[in-house]
Amino acid sequence: MSLLEINNLTCRYEQNTILNDLSLTVSDGEIMCLLGPSGCGKTTLLKAIAGLITTASGEIKLKNRLLLAGKATGKNINVDANKRDLGMIFQDYALFPHLTISANIAFGIADLSKTQQKRKIDELLELVSLEGLDARYPHELSGGQQQRVSIARALAREPKVLLLDEPFSNIDAQLRLPLIRDIKAILKQRNMAAIFVTHAKEEAFALADTMALLNNGSIVQSGAPQHLYNYPATKFVAEFLGHGSILTAQVLNENQLRCVLGDVTCTANKTLVVGETVDLFIRPHQFSVIANESGNGIIKEYQFRDDGYRAQVAVGEQIIEVWLPGYFDVQNTKTVQVKLTPQQLVVL
Ligand SMILES: Nc1ncnc2c1ncn2[C@@H]1O[C@H](COP(=O)(O)OP(=O)(O)OP(=O)(O)O)[C@@H](O)[C@H]1O
């Protein structure tokens, strides 16, 4: 069931349209990652949902309660940020430095009795694995621990949706994935919906039930991460979610294509029309590459990554990027045979 519903939202800063007639829904318990290049409007969208900025038009509903309805709807509703039932977590944790961890968490629940507050703080500290640290101050905790406190503080008010703006960008790369796993488990345990803003697709893949890809103030595509990866609606989506090479191919029949690598049997993300010329978007792992002195490809360059090599290979006039396993003898190999095995291909 849809929990948060955003309809035709437009936001402007001065003359610049930042969000353009944007619509989006988030269901109960859904973790959505909002992804997109720098400056595309991700933070602006979170702030608009949270009620922290003025919007030009549009409607926002939370569990069928209108939080925002522009003048054009004849309703002119704009619920205050602190009455929206939303929790917001920022990149810099935004903890109060002069308050202990326990006082930071208690901040939003001052209306509860002292006993109720204590019970809630203990429960939340256990949830975020910070038991026993309640008397410390934020500067006495690591970045990851501070981010857990900010999550505990946001959860204390039992918001219907959590909004997180690049919450992992100040966390060491090594600690990021374990922290993401923990936070995902906490959200799932509470069946809490969340919208995460990030521009790191690895974070989004690790965390998201759904992803929404934003560009120039509009959602370009949304859906399950694997759906966007396998069925990108546009070249922008395909490239944003992973490097790839573009190969031109002729459609021989509905599941056969001819390209510089020969004839390929495939299924495609789009219906293929016989005789048509199409662009294929092929990711490095999709090529099969073996050393072969009379092969069709010449290795031009290579770089070692943590999962093997990325190599630029010339096939005829085309340069393609392929993946090679870490044990590949790339220093002593010049010529390779590159093939496209039968598989699901992305046609742009
Ligand atoms: N207060 C403001 N006044 C004027 N323009 C602003 C303001 N805040 C943001 N902008 C502009 O709005 C656009 C979208 O900004 P926003 O912060 O939403 O992008 P973002 O996708 O979150 O970017 P990043 O990934 O770099 O954080 C940018 O062009 C930015 O310069």
Question: In short, what is this structure?
Answer:
This protein is an alpha+beta fold.
What's the layout of helices and strands?
Blueprint: E1 2-13, E2 16-27, E3 31-35, H1 42-50, E4 57-62, E5 65-69, E6 77-78, E7 86-89, H2 101-106, H3 114-127, H4 143-156, E8 161-165, H5 173-189, E9 193-198, H6 201-207, E10 210-215, E11 218-223, H7 225-230, H8 235-240, E12 245-253, E13 256-259, E14 262-268, E15 277-282, E16 287-291, E17 297-305, E18 308-315, E19 318-324, E20 335-340, E21 343-347
Pfam families: ABC_tran
Organism: Thalassotalea nanhaiensis
Protein name: ABC transporter ATP-binding protein
Average pLDDT reading: 90
| Class derived from helix and strand content | alpha+beta
Low-confidence runs: none
Overall geometry: globular
Alpha carbon gyration radius? 25 Å
Order of strands, widest sheet: 7-8-9-3-10-11
Distance between the termini: 33 Å
What is the succession of H and E elements? EEEHEEEEHHHEHEHEEHHEEEEEEEEEE
Beta-sheet strand percentage? Answer: 35-45%
Fraction of residues in H or I helices: 10-25%
Compounds present? adenosine-5'-triphosphate
Number of strands: 21
Main sheet attributes: strand count, strand direction, barrel closure: 6 strands, mixed
Counting copies of identical and different chains, the oligomeric state is single chain
With helices defined by DSSP (H or I, 4 residues minimum), what is the helix count?
A: 8
